[in-house]
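Re: your question from the hallway

Yes, I did run it. Sequences:
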Amino acid sequence: MTTTIDRRVIMRAIVVFLLAATAITLVSVMLSDSAQATDVATHVVSADTSSDDASTGATSNTADNILWLQSLVNGLAFGTLLALASVGLSLIYGTTGLSNFAHGEQVSFGAVLTYFLVTPQDVSIPLIPVSFNIGLPLLVGAAIGIAVSAGTGWLQDKFLWAPLRRRGVATVQQMIVSIGLSLALLNFIQWWIGGGRIGLTTSSGKAIDFGPFTLTDTTLISLAIALVCLGGVSWFLLKTRLGRATRAVSDNPALASASGIQVSKIIRLVWIISAGLAGLGGILLALYEGGTAFDAGARLLMLMFAAVTLGGLGQAFGALVGSLVIGVVVEMSTLWLPADLKIAVALVVLILVLLVRPQGILGRAERVG
Amino acid sequence: MDILIAVTREMFAPTTAAFALAAIGLNFHFGLTGLLNMGHAGFMLLGMYGYAITVREGGGMWLGLVVAVLLAIGFALLLGWPTLKLRGDYLAIVTIAAAEFVRFLGRSSVMKNITGGSTGIRGTDFKEPFESLSPFPDALITIGPWQLHGSASTSWWLVLVSWTMVAIFAWVFWMLAKSPWGRVLKGIREDEDAVRSLGKNVYAYKMQALVIGGVLGALGGILWSFGNAVSPDSMGRPTTFWIWTLLLLGGAATVFGPILGSVIFWAAIVLVKQLAALLIPETIMSTTAREPFALILVGVTLMLLVIFRPQGILGNRRELAING
Amino acid sequence: MADTGKPTPTAADPFALVPHEPGAPKMDKIIVADKIHRHFGGLTAVDVEHFEVQRNAITALIGPNGAGKSTFFNLLTGFDKPQTGEWSFNGFSLHSKSPAAVARSGMVRTFQLTKALSRMTVIENMRLGASEQVGESLSRAMFPGLWKKQEKEITAKAEELLVRFKLDKKRDDYAGELSGGQRKLLEMARALMSDPEIVMLDEPMAGVNPALTESLLDHIIELKNQGVTVLFVEHDMHMVRRISDWVVVMAEGKIIAEGPPATVMANKAVQDAYLGAHHDTDLSEER
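Structure:
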C-alpha cells in the first residue's frame, strides 16, 4: 500500500492524462464535421454546463474567463466531489473484493433523502397514501441524510454482505447480488420521488469571480466540505491504528486476520464510511449541479468505476487521483465535444487506460500460481 | 381471465424470444466461459443500429444482417482485446462502460442524422423488408384466445421467425457445449491458469466465446427492434441486468435455461403489473409506480436467486453446489 | 524400491561427474537458464545466474520460505515474466513464450494450490489434458463426426491413467468432491495426458493427507522410470531425501547450493539459510 503519493505516481497520472487528451482530440477531429453541421450540438455545450451559471452570463466579468481554465477548474471541482463517492467504492473493493454496483444508488439515496427532508413541497413514502411536509433546514436535512446513509452501510453489511461472506459466496456472485440490489434500489427511489429532476435548494448560488474563472459560493463551500472529508479519510487511513488496520486488510486479508486484526469489524467500518461518503457526495453533487434525480447515482457509477479502475482497483488514494483525472477529462472534453458525450469520453479513457496500464495508476501487477 | 391471456401471450411474444436469444448469447459468455459481460444490451443495440440503418439507407435486409453481425464481432474483438488477459471484473467494468458508450454515442445530438439521436429510429424506416416476407395475411389473426397481427410489428410472422431462431441457436449451443471446444470453455470458467498449464490458448477461446455470444446478442436486438423500434434508452444497463436475471433464473450453462428464464421472467412481469393494477388501489400505488414496483421485484429476485439458488431452475444442484 | 533410498540404480549415475556447486553443468541437460532476474517493486524475488536440469532424473528445488522457488517456477513455465534472462527447454528458447506454448512444447506443470477444475467431472478433467484435439477448434466442434474417434482414444487413455492413479472409481464424480490428496493425484494424472517430457510439480505434498504421501511418492518415481523428467518444489525435507536424485537449494532468490540430497543437507550454507528463516515456515502455506 502506498503511504504517500510519490513522484512516479504523478508522472503516471500525467501520462494517462496526456493520453486521454490525445484520444479526445482524435475523436473530436473525427466528429468535428458533424458537430459543426448541427448548430444544436454547439448550443448544448453552453446549455448543459448547468453547474457554472456564472459562465452563461450572471456577472459582467464572464468575458474575462479563459474557457479552458474554467473547464479545468470545473473539472477539478467535479473530480473532488466524485472522489467522495469513488473512494468508498474503492475501499469496499479493497477490503472485500466486491465491485459494488449498488454504490451509485447509495449516492442517489443521500441526495434524495436530503431532498425528502428539506423540500418545502409535500412528499410521501411509497405504499403510504399520506403526503406531508417536512421542510427542515438544508444543513439539518443533509446531516440526517449523511447519518442515515452511513446507517444503510451498516445495515447492508450486517444483514446482507457479512452473511454472504460467511457462507463463502464467491465475489462474482456477490457482484451479481449487488446488481440486483442496485436494480431494486434504483426503482424504489424512482417510485419514491418520481422520475423528474429535483433541487435541494431554490437558489443556484452567488457567482464569485476569480479573474480567469468563476465559481459559485455553493460550489466553493461544497468543495471545502469535500476536501475536509477527504483529508479526514486520508488522515484516518494513514495515521490512525484503525486506518492502518484497514489498509492491512486491503493488502492481505489472511495475513491481517492472522496478525490479530478483526477483519469483519474493519469491513463493517469500511461499509459505514463508504456509504456515508457516498451520501455526502450525492448531496454535494446535487448542490453543485443544481439538482438531482433518481438515477443521478446510476449515471455516476460509470465515472466512479472509471476513476477507481484508473487509480488501481482497491487503492483508496488511487481512486482520489483517478477521480480528479476523470473529472478534468470529462469537463475539458466539453471544449471540443457536445456535452451529451461527456460520460462517453470518460468511458473511452477508462478503456484506453486498461490497454496501457491495466493495474491502474497506483495498482501493482499480481503474482500467479 | 384477461390476465391469463395477457400473461400467456407474453410467454410466446417475440420480445420474449428476443431476450431468450440474447440470453443464449450471454450463456456462451457466462454459463460456459465464466465471462462477466455486463454490457450485453450494448451488443443488442449495436445489432439493431447496424440492421436498421443499413435497411433505411436502402441496403436491404441481408446486408443489414451482415452489417449487424460484423458490428457485433468488431465490438467483441475491441472489448476483448484489452480485457480478456486481465482479471474477470475488468471485463465486467469495460463491457458495461462500452455498452453505455454505444448508447451515449447513439443518442448524442452529434449522431442525430445517423442514429436518430435519443428518439432512435422509427419502425417504418426499417421493418418493411422483413414484414414483406411474411406468408401471413396483412390483417389481425386470432389463434385460440390470442389475437396478433399477421405480418406487422409484433406479429405471428415475427413470433414464428424469432422462436425458430431461438430453437436453432439453442441447438447450436447444445452441440458446442458438449464438444471438446465447450469443454475447454468450461475449464476456463473453473480456472483459466489450469487450462493454460495444459497448453490451451485461453485468450483465443475466450475471444471466440465473446464473439459468438455478442453476435447472438446483436441478433436478439434485431428481433427485439422488429417488435418495437430502435430506441437507445431501452437498451441501457437495466436491460443487461434483466438478461442476467432471466439467465440465472432459468439456469446458467443449461440449454433450455435462457428460454425458460425468459418465458417466466416476462410472464411474471406482466402478471405482477396486472395483479398490482387489480388488487392495489390507485391511492396506494399509482399507475406510474407499477413499473418500478415490478422492477424492484426483479432486482430482489436476482439477489435471492444468486444467494439461494445459483443454479437456477434447470441447473444441476450438485454441479453448482461445489464451492471452489 | 522406495526403501533403498537411492532410486534407479540401473543406469550409471548421470551425476557422478557433476560438481556439487551452484549452477553446475549437467551431462544431458533438458532445461538451461541464464541470468534470470525478477523483482517486484524494489524486492528481488529471483536472481539466478545459471541453472541446468538433468534429463530423466528427479530434481528437487528446495529453500526456505520466500526464497523465490515458486516465482522461479512461474518464470520457467511462462506464468510470470522476468525482467531479464534467457532460458531454454530442449534447446528451444522459452523466452516470452506464453504458458500455453510452454505446455505444448512438452513442459507441463502443476500448482501449489491444486487447480482441479471443481465443477467438471474427473474424466472431463482428464480429457481436457490431452493435447492436439481436433474437436477443440471451433470450426470443427459442431461436427461430432470429426472428433468422435479421437475422443474415444483420449477417453481410453484417460481411463488407463485413472486406474494407475487409483482414481477410476471416481471417474464420474465432480473434481470438487475429491479430497485434497486425490485432487493432487488428479492434477498429476491430467498433466500426463499430453505425454510431457518434463513435469514440474509445485509442492506436490502440500495439504496431502499422510496416508496418500507414499503413493504420491511412488507415482513420482514411476514417472522417472517411464522416461519423464521431474522437477519439483518442496518443503518437506524427508520427501526430498527419499526420491530426489539431485537437489538445488535457493535462498533469497539465488541458488546457494547443489548436489545429491545427503551432501546438500550437510552443507553449512543450506543449514544457515534454513535456520535463519525458519521461524515463519508455516505462514505462507496459504496465501
